[in-house]
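Handout, page 2. Input:
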Amino acid sequence: MDYKSTSAKLAEFRREIAAIRKKMRAAQAGVEPEEVADYQLATLQGTVRLSELFAGKADLILIHNMGTTCPNCTLWADGLNGIYHHLLDRAAVVVTSPDPPEVQQRFAAGRGWKFPMVSHQGTTFAEDMGYRSKDGGWLPGISVFKREGKRILRVSDATFEPGDDFCALWHIFDLLPGGAGDWAPKFNYS
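Output:
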């Protein structure tokens, strides 16, 4: 197919995706929230409750990160770092992983991450939220919570995987001849 015809076809697909996203937002708006416990998580400063992570905001965006051993989670967190202040204008934002707080701090400092991190190590938080695999490993994703008085309600969540809608890099690679090809994220490229 020639360039102009392909471009027109791709534009039509993007309109279809936009229409599907509109339907997804409508479905999300009608969801019955799920009440969750006020979990205790760990930081360098000590234990913190999930309710405290809202930092005075009505909503909390919480990223389920697999920790320092996952280059895909690191790629996603690097991207989150770039939009963190934009997100923070609308909601509280926190990243959680199974790594101890000291490990989180060193890794985050080495990457220049600005967002706060908490450890769910030794808790059932990630598993209860659906971010633990059947073989006991961790899964990446996002959960969004809102406060309703003293209640904490999970209003949405989604898993992360290469090529998902939550990492722009994959969609930019889609524009290259051959897409991402056999490219995979690394911790360093030097």
